[in-house]
Amino acid sequence: MATHHSRSAARMMMAPAVIVLLGWMLIPLTMTLYFSFKKYLPLRGGDLGWTGFDNYTRFISSSAFLPSVQATLIIVGGVLVITVVLGVLLALLLDQPMWGQGIVRVLVIAPFFVMPTVSGLVWKNMFMDPVNGLLAHLWKFFGATPVEWLSHASLQSIIMITSWQWLPFATLILLTAIQSLDREQLEAAEMDGAPPLKRFTYIILPHLSRAIAVVILIQTIFLLSIFAEIFVTTAGSFGTRTLTYLIYQRVLESQNVGLGSAGGVYAIILANIVAIFLMRIVGKSLDT
């Protein structure tokens, strides 16, 4: 049992790391809040004084605000559906004994280690190019007209690119969960005559509920700030301007740090609302 002296020593040793982490989080947040109440134009006069809540009002009343939130939520929802469904299927497939199983697993997981900018450029130039892309050649082979993906199916394209990048993560987590399943339970169900679909519905899927909840939570946190894939493909055009990209435009393109900071505060609020909602779902899943 830990003594009072040992607990005090542990707190003292942890204190430097805790202080650094708090500073790492609180300093940028404080600066964002500070600039959100000021009119700060670095290349057009600098600090022009306090504006109160004017930046917040201007940002939320902008005609681009609600479409950007909608685009963000559509991308997040689409990626989550694709990665969870395909992740479960891939995890079930990779759990089966096969020749070259280790190589197949490495190839499935490999896209997760590709940088977002690189994956966006690869999909844009190698797959989705309407003239020289692989998908265009495939369409022509079947006698169809190639699709201009990034202009005519822009949101779907972003969802496809992002899903390709995050699918390995979901597969890895779900495969680990499947491998922890009690095999005797499955064998008993099989001996009792339960078909594969019922074994999946009543045994495997309930066992995966916690892993699925964790995948949804972690991916949502990162997907709410999606930026690089949009920057290198559509540059926010054709309805793909997310809330993060809108903030980027306000800060760098308009050179209005105060307005962009107000947008950053709105992004933090949105992320926390989604995180609290998901944490409750994960909490209920872990309690069952």
Description:
The model has no long low-confidence stretch (mean pLDDT 82). The protein has a domain at 65-240: MetI-like (MetI-like fold, Orthogonal Bundle), CATH 1.10.3720.10. A two-stranded antiparallel ribbon has the order 1-2. It has helices at residues 4-36, 54-61, 65-94, 101-109, 116-127, 134-141, 149-152, 154-179, 183-191, 196-223, 228-233, 243-253, 257-287; strands at residues 38-41, 46-50. β1 and β2 (46-50) form a beta hairpin. The two termini are 30 Å apart. By secondary structure, it is mainly alpha-helical. The chain is built from 13 helices and two strands, in the order αββαααααααααααα.
β-strand number: 2
- Order of helices and strands, N to C? HEEHHHHHHHHHHHH
**Cα-based radius of gyration, to the nearest Å:** 24 Å
The CATH class assignment of the domain at 65-240 is Mainly Alpha
Mean pLDDT over the full residue set: 82
- Indicate the structural class: mainly alpha
* Principal-axes shape call: globular
Mind telling me which CATH architecture of the domain at 65-240 this is? Orthogonal Bundle
Helix content: over 70%
Oligomer category: single chain
Characterize the biggest β-sheet. 2 strands, antiparallel
The CATH homologous superfamily of the domain at 65-240 is termed: MetI-like
